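Thread: quick sanity check before group meeting

JM: Hey all, I'm pulling together slides for Thursday and realized we never actually wrote out the predicted structure for the chain we discussed last week. Dropping the sequence here so it's in one place. If anyone has concerns about the input, flag it before I start.
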Amino acid sequence: MALSGIQIYKLLPQTNCKDCGFPTCLAFAMKLAAKQVELAACPHVGDDAKAQLSEASEPPVRLVSLKSNGYEVKAGNEVVLFRHEKTFYNKPGLFIRLRDTESPDEIKTRVAAADGYKVIYVGRELALDGFAVEAASRTPAAFSAAINAVRQISHRPLILISRDPAIMAAGLRLVDGERPLMVGADAANWQAMGDLAKQHGAALAVTADTLDGLADLTVKLKDLGVQDLVLDPTAQRLGASLALNTQIRRLALRKNFRPLGYPVIAFPGDADEPAQESILAAHAIAKYAGFIVLDHFAPETAYPLLVLRENIFTDPQKPIQVQPGVYEINNPNADSPVLVTTNFSITYFSVANEVESSGLPAWLVVTDAEGMSVLTAWAAGKFDAERIAKAIKTFNVADKVSVKRVVLPGHVAVLSGELENELPDWEIRVGPREAVDLPAFIKQSL
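JM (edit): ok, ran it. Output follows.
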C-alpha cells in the first residue's frame, strides 16, 4: 500500500540538508508520495528505510525498455492521466509486424522500407521504432528464418510474438545480448514464458481479456522473479479498448494498484477492417499504449501518426523552440530582405519552408519569444518593438545588408510605429498575416 507524505517523512533522515534539491525533508517526502521524484535523489536514506520506502518510490507505471544495437525504446514511468497536468515522458514505440509465413525476401523488402523512413518535423527527425515478428507458421524454423531476415536489414528493437514456449525459445536464441519484448504469456503458459524471460533478460507481455486476468498473471510472474512486464488487454473494438486502457491507467495512477502498473501494448492491425488500423493506432497513442504494433507501413499513414505522437508527448509547459539568431535562406546577399519572426518552432518552420520552397533569398531574424507564436508572444509582451530591435542589433543584421528594410509579420502591424522609433535608420514594412503569402509579397513589394 502506498505511504502518505507524513509516513515517508518519518523514514527520512529529517536533516533538511537540501542535497535532494528540496528545502526540507518534508517537501521531498510530499513529492515522493506524489510520484514526482525518485528515492535515489536522497543520498542519506538508510538501508532499512529504503526497504520500507520501496513501494512509495516506485513509479505507478513501471518503466520498461527494449534495447538492441544502440537503439532503445522506453515505455511507462508516467505519472499523470492528462498531459496538461504535467507532461508525458516516454513516447509509445511504433512497430511494424512481420509474419513468418511471408518469404524472407518479402520480409526484407518491407523492413527496408520502414527502417529507412525518416521525416523532419519542426526540426526533429521522426522514425519508426522497431519490428514485431509473429510465429504465424507455428514452427521454430520459420520463426527463426523471419527474425534472421529482419536482422539482415535492421537492428532496431524487436517484439517476438508466440504463445508456444519452444518457438519463443528458438527466436530468443537469435537475439541474445538484446532486450526484446516477448508477447504471449497467458494463463496456460505463463510459467514457461516467465522462465524464458528470466533466462534471456527479456520483457514479457501478458495476455488476458479481463483486468482480473491481467492482474492475476502479473502477480504470478512478479513472484516468479519477472519484473519487466507489459499488459496486452485483448480488446479489438475501439470502445472496449478505450475503456480497458483508461481503467488500467486510472487504477495504476489513482489507486496505486501495482498489479496493473505496467505499460500497455496495442495491436491496431488486428482490427476487423484494415481501414480502422490508423484510427485505432491514433487512439492507442493518446490513450495509453506504450508499444503499438501496426500491420501496414506507408508514408502517408506513418507521418500523421508520428506527428500526433510528437505533439502529444511534447511538454505543454515547454514549447518547441529554435535558437534565436539570423538564419540564411537560399544564400541571401546584401540586397535580400530581412524578415522577422519568433522562435516558436512551428512558426519558424512555417516561414522558413515557404520562403525556401519559393527559391527567394532572405535573412530571417528569429527573436527570443520564449517559444511562443507571433500573436501569443505579442499578447504576452514577449514580442514587441524593443525585443525586435534588440535582436536586429545583437545579431548585427545591419552589417549584412545594403538596404535597411525589415518586414514585420502582418499580425503585429501595430508594432510598426514603435519599431520605427527603436530603429530610426530602418524602413519598417508590414508583411502578410500568413507565411504562405510571403513569397508573393517579396516578389511584388520588395
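AS: nice. The chain has a mean pLDDT of 93. The domain at 5-57 is CATH 1.10.15.40 (3-methyladenine DNA Glycosylase II; Chain A, domain 3).
JM: adding both to the slides.
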